[in-house]
Amino acid sequence: MKLHGTMRVNGRGYLEIGGCDAVELASRFGTPLYVVDEQLFRENCRAYYRAFTERHGGQVIYAAKTLFTLAVSRLVEEEGLGLDVVSGGELYTAQEAGFPMSRVYFHGNNKSPQELRLALEWRVGRIVVDNLYELELLERLAGELHVRAGVILRLTPGVEAHTHEYVKTGQIDSKFGLVIENGQALEGIKRALASKHLVLHGLHCHIGSQVFELESYAHAVNVMMDFAALVHRETGWAPAELDMGGGLGIYYAAGDEPRPVEEYADVMMQALTERAVAHHLPVPRLLVEPGRSISGPAGTTLYTVGAIKDIPGVRKYVAVDGGMGDNPRLALYQARYEACLANRAGAAPEEVVSVAGKCCESGDMLIWDIRLPRAVPGDILAVSCTGAYNYTMSMNYNRLPRPAMVLAADGRADLIVERETYSDLLRNDLIPARLRRERRLNVASVR
Ligand SMILES: *Cc1c(COP(=O)(O)O)cnc(C)c1O
Asked: What does each C-alpha distance from 274 to 204, 266, 271, 277, 394 come to in angstroms?
């Protein structure tokens, strides 16, 4: 397993994250356990801040959907980034954490009237409007609340990123955004400009996720700026902000070759400047919305090994005490991961095994065919790069309680998400009167 951030193998041969012994973390907090490397998370934020804000005067907006809790909100705020939220729930979390609402960008292809009202009442910095229906709805709600809302329009540039089908978002056949080609985008801009309660600041696109080719971004910038030139000829309006979304790919396993953030910033900025000059347009402020490339490598999940099933000549399954409930990415995207045995982190691999979860699904796998030292029940398995789209996608399938999360730094580990309990699982369950029995009977029947 490639070591990320503050990871190292300590004197006992155990994996260490943020100066904390992973085996001790597992025994102190239980498994499965999400461990966030605070220093790496912050360093990733800083790399973006330096590359986009300090070098090019741009704005970095962290995508909350990848990893977000009250404590994570504090980190993002302290590092000076903006925040991309896509739901009332994420917005509420940011508000409760005290995140400055002026730095919040509200996304989503079907925001409800209630969500939009919240965003307007709390004065979020920008609402990224996805479609003509939303434009109309927002205009009405802003009118009712007597506020003017800063908006950006999300467009579909027709650029295909080379990535998994389910995380592509820039192609024309997408549920997101106003299509440039068929005139919808221009129509949206005209309506936004004519609106009394909306202030149109710029344009947005997001071509996909886990993207390695920076050329895709330069191409998308060109398409957006060519369109901006057309809009300028038609309306006299030019975007002050160009939001290019997120998507920079990260290292999960051998074969992944991520590009440096600085290069990513420079490639886009160069395309942006050239195209703006060519079209005699002012250079808009460049906005980016990184998620995975900030949170992904900063997360590691610790599991305890249990049952091991060897089918000679076929496959050896090593089952752990979590799985698709805490990490559904293999099931969803055929995602690949690396892992090591945290209690024998320095040991050489001895065999090829596949890591299975404990859910009642054959598809509940974490890793196919990984080389590991010979695992035995009780070993602690660490899966790296689980910071993004793991906790935020976790679920209670099979009524498995969701794991706890700790923030590790300088030898300290602080609990930032408590482990769910069995009683948490019943929090929303109700028994209608006609099915109620004496509690006593119920307990007896369990015994
Ligand atoms: C998912 C998403 C992001 C973040 O993508 P990453 O690949 O995690 O960087 C940013 N912006 C929008 C609109 C998104 O949908």
From this structure: 19, 12, 5, 5, 43
Token match 């886009």: residue?
Answer: 268
229 and 325 inside one domain: no
CA of 169 to the centre of ligand 1 (A): 10
CATH number assigned to the domain comprising residue 25: 2.40.37.10
Q: Is 20 a catalytic residue?
A: no
Looking at the CA of residue 204, tell me the nearest atom of ligand 1: 13
Residue 169 has pLDDT above 70, yes or no: no
Co-location of 323 and 234 in the same domain: no
Same domain, 116 and 265: yes
Do 275 and 316 fall within a single domain?
no
What is the chain's length? 447
pLDDT digits (tens, 9 = 90+) for 48-91: 999 999 999 999 999 999 999 999 999 999 999 999 999 999 99
Confidence (pTM): 0.96
Structural domain including 69 reads 38-295
pLDDT digits (tens, 9 = 90+) for 132-166: 999 999 999 999 999 999 999 999 998 877 666 65
Ligand 1, atom nearest to 388 Cα: 8
Q: Are residues 291 and 352 in the same domain?
A: no
> Measured in whole angstroms, how far is the alpha carbon of residue 284 from the centre of its chain?
26
Are residues 405 and 32 in contact, defined by beta-carbon separation less than 8 angstroms? no
| Ligand 1 pocket residue status of 38, Cβ below 6 Å | no
Residue 294 CA: nearest ligand 1 atom is 9
What separation in Å is there between the alpha carbon of 241 and the centre of ligand 1? 17
Look up the CATH number of the domain holding residue 206.
3.20.20.10
Give distance in angstroms: CA of 48 to centre of ligand 1.
14
pLDDT at position 447: 47
Same domain, yes or no: 247 and 367: no
* pLDDT above 60: residue 441: no
3-state secondary structure of 165: helix
